[in-house]
């Protein structure tokens, strides 16, 4: 039976059931039998992972295609619940074997994860988890269908971003208000979806013996190396060191632009980006997706021949869907195709500098996947999210010296670097706002919508830019709805902040020793999930720290780099 054939269909229970029965009934008499069981479980899991990946990719690439939606939901409702029970039984089978204590060290983290899953598993939570997936998929479908008629043409919301970079303030206002008006059309249903998600997730936590979903989320996400208190320390460090710099940057912008105050269409609430203060035209790094691909290949070849060849493998493997179009889910992601052996990259490019950063970011995830692809078991390749984001965010910074592939003029290169460094600081603030928001939400699951809005606005005072939302107060109170992670990946957001600190450390290392920075990157990414999170950081010669002094040092380095740019 094993290894399973490449054509094995993991979307059908009639294919999976005999495989699962074989694994569950198998007699284990020695270490060799046990290791063989691990290998075969991994083989089945790889097929299952790729089947789910391809259905998810198909659905997000075309949210208006009913057959793709139905195929994905059929998998979510018909296959995942059954396989969750199988997985729990296999975990119990292995954990109850005395032989497990004699396994080699490579299984330590796998066994720890298995035992954690056993403790969390509740059969009554399976339909609740399916319900959460259905609700988050509905959110994606709603947002993916959003378009705006603007200046005589129809645009997706990602495509509308380009109008927010133009120098004409009235055009920016018109574009921003058009997008917000479109979002508000579905805001009531989106709030309904979120209310139901919070209620359902709280019940999942209670069923598993936890007081609230915060506690459950930290355990289910295997956050063994940091705590909610560490997150709060992170928030405080960002408030202390990032917010003064953000406010200083924005005050200079306000004065340079000659405005009495900054409005929502003058500054990006999430990243802190704004129109050029000198009135120069918006940066245009590429004209179409083909250009973006060829330029990005040149960037990676300039940085490292190895990385350039790895990126070219993605192009040749036809695993890139990059352009924005109607019916495509918002955002970007990288999804590994375990059996095919290549990662898939999804994004919504519309011709901006932010698209360059997204392309490089997702390629960084792909490199991480490719570097650890030779590890034998899927569990060894399932690296922690916090370190996955180090792979992607550090690649954004490490490629900066080669952005001349996107821009012929040095002035434009410097502008792009400045935008990126400023958004690095701005993103840290947004991360803390979202993370603080989630902690409050799930610690107070019986909150009203009014209380939710009040908390969101309170956090904006701590972590938001000092822009004026007069006449758009309702939009301001509901702006959290634009963050898809709140719906589809609860508590997956502080990872970006933790990773940004790691990425900044690799960037600082690159300044003095570029070759060693890349060696450290490769060495750490090749480990996959074979070491604890602090040890993965150490393998890259960086530190996993949250304290004020560490944050202050890194932000001061960004500030110095910004001051050194001649734009």
Topology:
Layout: H1 13-25, H2 31-61, H3 66-78, H4 80-95, H5 108-120, H6 126-144, E1 147-150, E2 153-156, H7 157-160, H8 169-185, H9 187-207, H10 213-220, H11 228-257, H12 289-303, H13 305-316, E3 320-323, E4 333-337, E5 342-349, H14 353-371, H15 378-381, H16 385-398, H17 410-443, H18 449-463, H19 473-477, H20 485-488, H21 494-512, H22 514-525, H23 533-539, H24 548-564
Parallel strand pairs: 3-5
Antiparallel strand pairs: 1-2, 4-5
Helix pairs in contact: 1-2, 1-4, 2-3, 4-5, 6-9, 9-10, 11-17, 11-24, 12-13, 14-16, 16-21, 17-18, 17-21, 17-24, 21-22, 21-24, 22-23
- Binned strand content: under 5%
How far the N terminus sits from the C terminus, by CA atoms, comes to 63 Å
Computed structural class: mainly alpha
- How many H/I helical runs? 24
Mean pLDDT: 96
Shape: globular
Quantity of strands, as a count:
5
> Could you tell me the radius of gyration in angstroms?
24 Å
- Helical coverage, percent range: 55-70%
One letter per element, helices H and strands E, the order comes to: HHHHHHEEHHHHHHHEEEHHHHHHHHHHH
Strand order of the largest sheet: 3-5-4
Oligomer classification: single chain
Q: Which residues sit in consecutive blocks of at least 5 with pLDDT less than 50?
A: none
Summarize the main sheet.
Answer: 3 strands, mixed
